[in-house]
Specification:
This protein is of the alpha/beta class and about 475 residues long. It is built from 17 helices and 16 strands. The protein has a 10-stranded mixed beta sheet, with helices on both faces. The chain has a two-stranded antiparallel ribbon with strand order 9-14. Helix 10 packs parallel to helix 12, helix 13 packs antiparallel against helix 14 and helix 15 packs antiparallel against helix 16. The longest helix is centred in the middle third of the chain and has 24 residues.
Length: about 475
């Protein structure tokens, strides 16, 4: 009896000691798919399955991680959160008021993020996104502001917090509409090198102490608010995978002892969902998965020291996979060659070429080339009549009356074509805004076992900190 008791005590002590020596996460990747609810992920996998000619899924890289669960997303003041409050929850572990960055709901009390905790623990830190670096989700990791739209002040906070690496499309308001000191000038004064595009990064990164990676200036001249959608991408456009690879390369310098923390946001999943553009949504999820694969390559080289967590700030659009027919036709979406915004630009070019006298024949040809209509994607007479009616109302020698979504204003013919494509694919939408749907959580690596069971979004940064041993 005494022997059994001693054996039990020794066994318990050994297990406790071994648990105490469990490897902490030295390298942390925190991926946030903005607007990426459960159905955005499932829809992408079903779409990939249909591309192979079968019913079923082709799994994404991150959905194969050994630990997965889901999280709630409500804010401190709203059952349906916005990206500022959700970003604050995912960054700091604290609920806030919609529209508020890095502060409690009183909009006065600043709260630090898990990225700051990592920095205070001696890690190198990076914050990156496919949209502007001062947008709500990335800003929640380094800024404190009562209004998410105060982009200039948020940009200044980037330097105050002083992380090692930032990346995004650009600054949205680099000089406070001409009233403030340029954020580009402040970069040099605060020890930052600005690189424009992946090739420029490769030239400048070795000598840089701290670095900000933006898209090339020509791309910003067209649209500084975000990198192009994956579906619209052209040669030379910066990608989220390149951003991730650059961040790993840069943060790995001098990271041997303490490691690094990197947040990567797939920001335009949300934008495509606001536009209810299914083909663009699924390609954006696939594109973020390409960035996750870059992190996974690093994990494969450091499996005992690396943690990768993938989640979302909220669901957008209330997407439904199926509209009542007990079927899906997602493979039709492969024939959509551009986003709704991309087709708007095509129509704009036709307006310019014809002196705003775009014919139905020209419009029809553009629809064939970019959506596959009347060819690979057959239309009913009713659908054709809808397109012709929109043409007559908005294009036949008339000025455009654009349709608005959260981040875009599009030609009515582009919006109608997208709606018809979604109908054919049997994808539905509840709204053009956010919903309170669960968001998925996936994890692999050191401490990944912490990401189990029902959780709230505020618990995610806390569990990351626990896995990595950060000082809060």
């Amino acid at each position: 009896m005494i022997f059994k008791k001693i054996t039990f005590i020794l066994l318990f002590t050994c297990v406790t000691v071994l648990a105490g020596f469990a490897q902490s996460a030295k390298y942390v990747f925190y991926f946030i798919g903005d607007g990426m609810g459960v159905n955005q992920v499932q829809g992408t996998e079903l779409y990939l399955g249909e591309l192979e000619g079968r019913i079923g899924i082709v799994p994404l890289c991150f959905t194969q991680f050994p630990y997965s669960t889901f999280a709630t997303t409500f804010s401190a003041t709203n059952g349906v959160t916005d990206s500022a409050a959700a970003g604050t929850a995912l960054a700091t572990g604290r609920k806030s008021k919609n529209g508020t960055i890095g502060m409690l709901k009183d909009q006065q009390t600043a709260v630090n993020s898990v990225a700051v905790w990592a920095k205070n623990s001696g890690c190198r830190v990076g914050v990156s996104t496919s949209v502007s670096v001062d947008h709500a989700t990335p800003a929640a990791f380094y800024a404190h502001n009562a209004g998410r739209g105060n982009y200039y002040e948020i940009g200044k906070d980037l330097y105050t917090t002083g992380f090692d690496f930032y990346a995004g499309s650009d600054f949205l308001d680099p000089d406070q509409k001409g009233k403030g000191e340029s954020l580009y000038d402040l970069a040099g004064k605060n020890g930052y090198t600005i690189a424009r595009g992946y090739k420029d990064y490769l030239k400048k990164s070795k000598k840089a102490d701290k670095l900000i990676l933006f898209q090339p200036e020509a791309a910003s001249a067209t649209d500084r608010s975000a990198l192009p959608y994956a579906i619209d991408r052209r040669k030379g456009d910066m990608t989220l995978a390149e951003v991730t690879r650059s961040a790993i390369n840069f943060l790995s310098k001098k990271a041997d002892e303490k490691g690094f923390f990197l947040m990567v946001e797939g920001g335009k999943i949300d934008w495509a969902c606001h536009s209810n553009d299914a083909a663009t949504v699924f390609r954006e999820v696939m594109d973020m998965d390409e960035a996750v694969k870059v992190a996974y390559e690093f994990y494969a080289q450091h499996p005992d020291e690396t943690l990768i967590v993938v989640t979302a700030d909220h669901e957008t659009g209330g997407i439904s996979l199926g509209t009542g027919a007990y079927a899906l036709n997602l493979q039709a979406l492969k024939h959509q060659q551009v986003s709704e915004g991309g087709f708007t630009r095509i129509i704009n070019a036709l307006r310019a070429q014809t002196g705003n006298k775009v014919s139905w024949e020209q419009t029809e040809q553009a629809l064939k080339e970019n959506f596959g209509f009347w060819g690979n994607v057959p239309l009913s007479q009713k659908q054709t009549d809808r397109l012709k009616a929109v043409y007559e109302k908005s294009l036949a020698g008339q000025e455009a009356k654009l349709e608005k979504s959260e981040y875009a204003q599009d030609e009515p013919i582009a919006s109608e074509a997208k709606r018809i494509m979604d109908e054919i694919a049997l994808v539905g939408w509840t709204s053009g805004g956010h919903s309170a749907g669960f968001v998925p959580v996936f994890a692999i690596g050191a401490g990944a076992e912490l990401f189990q069971g029902h959780m709230d979004n505020t618990e995610i940064p806390e569990r990351i900190a626990k896995a990595a041993g950060y000082r809060q």
